[in-house]
User: Fold this.
Amino acid sequence: MSFKIIGTGSAHPARSVTNDELAVFLDTSDEWIYSRSGIKSRYICTMETILDIAEQAGQAALENAGITGDDLDLIICTTVRGDYITPSMACVLQKRLGAHCPAFDLNGACSGFIYALDVAAGFFARKRVKKVLVVSSCNMSKLLDWTDRSTCVLFGDGAGAVVLGEGDNLLSIHLSAQGDPDVMFIPNVSGNSPFNRTPKPAIALTMHGQDVYKFAVNAMAHDLKLVIEEAGLEQKDIHHVLPHQANIRIINTAIKHLNIPEDRYHTNIETHGNISSAAIPTLMDELNRAGVFHSGEYLALSAFGGGLTTGACVIRWG
Ligand code: ACO
Assistant:
């Protein structure tokens, strides 16, 4: 037994920031950002915390599934950094959602949602759970150097969530990690120990964009081929592809290595930017609420991110 998706939810901050607004304080332009990434605007936290956004997404998923927090057997949150180092985001959400189950955070960077699905599948296989909430939320705006035009224009804040119930709808899943802190990293807090003699870097994302780009194109094409084959399907059988939303050019290049019709790839990067592990569940929720998915259809998910990590899976909808 694995699981089936029985509810979805998503939420984002109220404030949408356009490329033109960034061009007011950065040496950039809407033309550069849109043509290089496919991004027109992104949501950025102002008065809200990322916990508020995660709570809204989690609550929406519970309502969509027709259950309450008290019905949950497990909460997994995926994030690179919540509002606190401890308690975990999952523990705070457990309280806010009225749940009483075990709860923990998982950091798989942008691949975190698919890592969480595989972890949840293990809990279902061992019959430890009947209902699991996965909430993926990222406050990327707090982790950026807003004077660095090569990174800050690419990211946004948001949360996506799913409720999983008992079922056999996870047909295949693949995770990978290729440890490499040089390609992309965000330092942690240094503290003020008088004994610490190591450098104290600013908490800001650093990235070799072109290296990530090449890695991402290869990973997406490779992982999707693999999970579709392991699901016993052909690429033309896939009804919907939900790729990680990091750069539209990565998706458009990976498409050329696959035989899935182009109209089956879904995107929302234009209005969200890269919201890390929240990207795929947010896209899933938007498509679910728009009535795009039909029972029995096959969804292929593919993510890549810091670590470097990748994750992909095939899920039967309904
Ligand atoms: N506005 C205007 N000019 C810019 C900007 C900007 N915002 N940013 C960089 N430039 C300039 C550079 O300084 C450079 O100028 P130069 O030629 O005078 O030196 C020029 O534009 C070209 O820069 P490149 O880095 O070569 O641009 P590229 O076409 O590679 O695009 C990008 C950069 C968008 C970052 C691309 O490499 C990319 O998308 N990489 C993948 C990033 C990614 O997916 N990251 C996240 C993955 S993990 C996760 O999701 C958390």
